[in-house]
């Protein structure tokens, strides 16, 4: 049965695939960057990020020498910042070992930082026509329903099994199109949330889950470990047209990025004012803000906040905070979208919000 999906899938893809900025040229650099961006992010959200990234850094050599702060700013709002750090590490290796071009070898691609089986398979098959699989969540979901498999798709052994099966049926002449067809089917038809669009599926006649009406039971994913909950008090400290930011530690969550000052726990006004006094900041006005939440992969921030107007500053050298013009923060300093709910109180936009504002 699985052997019979190749031809109808290729025919369907030829007629129904989306036009995407990284897809048409088969540029290996474009495919690499887009695939890293697309991990756990929707296509429509990725498009403007991809276009800005490529415009600012048109080649792998440009990525290799890009200052870290600019690199983080280009990624701001996408999250998972270690991914872009790995992109730069890989870019340095590609420049040093492969003259600035991604290697035309699946094994060598996998040796680069941040590139696993899936991304290596996508670059190798789409850009270079190498017949290797590219199995992502979309492909795993399609396969689980097609074969009515109740195996846990989060297990590496299951993913390896699917990769081997896809390798076996891989069309030697059109590996990139086949991999993209499977991904596209999972993204557009055999969708992850809501009812699958089986009536539009080119291989529904081969699908065991469709035949047995078990489509919505699949795929099986083992329940993830519950996220750790952390309480935060976020401080929006203003000095005229400037706002306070500080750099996060070089290791850990959001390493090396900038943030609005924040304290552990949900603190009352008196505790916040006491903290400001330690920093020799003279508050003129303090206003409590509504709560907000931000979810990371393993942690959930439960936040409250305050907007605090302080007197003009004379000596900032001894503080671990910077007071920066809000427009300069938007342009130069990478601040994660986790703080958007509070940044908006001083008309500061982060990530994609910033670019939406520029277009208005």
Any descriptors?
single chain; 360 residues; alpha+beta; Endonuclease III, domain 1; Nucleoside Triphosphate Pyrophosphohydrolase; 2 domains; 7-stranded mixed sheet; 16 helices; 7 strands; elongated
What do these coordinates show?
The radius of gyration is 24 Å and the shape is elongated. It folds into two domains: 2-217, Hypothetical protein, domain 2 (Endonuclease III, domain 1); 228-359, Nucleoside Triphosphate Pyrophosphohydrolase. The protein is of the alpha+beta class and 360 residues long. Helix 2 crosses helix 3 (43-56), helix 2 (28-38) packs antiparallel against helix 8 and helix 9 (137-147) crosses helix 11 (175-188). It is built from 16 helices and seven strands.
